[in-house]
């Protein structure tokens, strides 16, 4: 089933199939093509999960021989399947990561104050 057919069947069931533009790529070397492909797909899956998505669409798989080793490069687009059409829940208690970095707050204040020349 391609992505469009999957989208249509999910919409009939009331689910949304969200597409995200930044592609994710991974490469791997191994002695066999199968092992290299398995390693590359594991890397891609790990990166997709770290970004918080639960589905992916493989766009390209490129295989090459390099110095007797097999090299595989996998390119995917992340997708997310949800009940609502929004990428993230609108939870007021959700804590954003990296906003409150108190260790470097003085550096940020100093950088901003340098730009003020006169009032």
Enumerate the spans where pLDDT stays under 50 for 5 or more consecutive residues.
112-119
Main pleated-sheet profile: 4 strands, antiparallel
Rg, Å, rounded = 21 Å
Provide the structure class.
alpha+beta
The count of β-strands is 4
The percentage helix is 25-40%
Measured between the Cα atoms of the first and last residue, the distance is 63 Å
Report the order of strands and helices.
HEEHEEH
Number of helices: 3
Q: Beta-strand percentage?
A: 25-35%
Question: Judging from the principal axes of the Cα atoms, what is the shape?
Answer: elongated
What keywords describe this structure?
four-stranded antiparallel beta sheet; 3 helices; 119 residues; alpha+beta; elongated; disordered C terminus
What do you see in this structure?
This protein is of the alpha+beta class and 119 residues long. It contains 3 helices and 4 strands; from the N terminus they run αββαββα. Helix content is 32%, strand content 31%. Strands 1, 2, 3 and 4 form a 4-stranded antiparallel beta sheet that branches. The radius of gyration is 21 Å and the shape is elongated. It starts with a helix and ends in a 5-residue tail after the last helix. 9% of the residues are buried.
Topology:
Blueprint: H1 3-12, E1 16-19, E2 24-30, H2 33-50, E3 55-66, E4 69-82, H3 105-114
Antiparallel strand pairs: 1-4, 2-4, 3-4
């Amino acid at each position: 089933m391609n992505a469009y057919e999957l989208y249509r069947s999910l919409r009939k069931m009331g689910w949304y199939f969200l597409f995200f533009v930044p592609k994710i790529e991974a490469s791997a070397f191994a002695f066999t093509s199968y092992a290299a492909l398995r390693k590359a797909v594991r890397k891609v899956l790990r990166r997709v999960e770290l970004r918080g998505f639960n589905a992916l669409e493989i766009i390209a798989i490129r295989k090459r021989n390099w110095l007797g080793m097999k090299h595989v490069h996998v390119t995917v687009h992340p997708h997310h399947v949800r009940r609502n059409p929004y990428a993230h829940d609108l939870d007021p208690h959700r804590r954003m990561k990296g906003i409150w970095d108190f260790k470097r707050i003085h550096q940020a204040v100093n950088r901003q104050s340098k730009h003020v020349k006169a009032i």
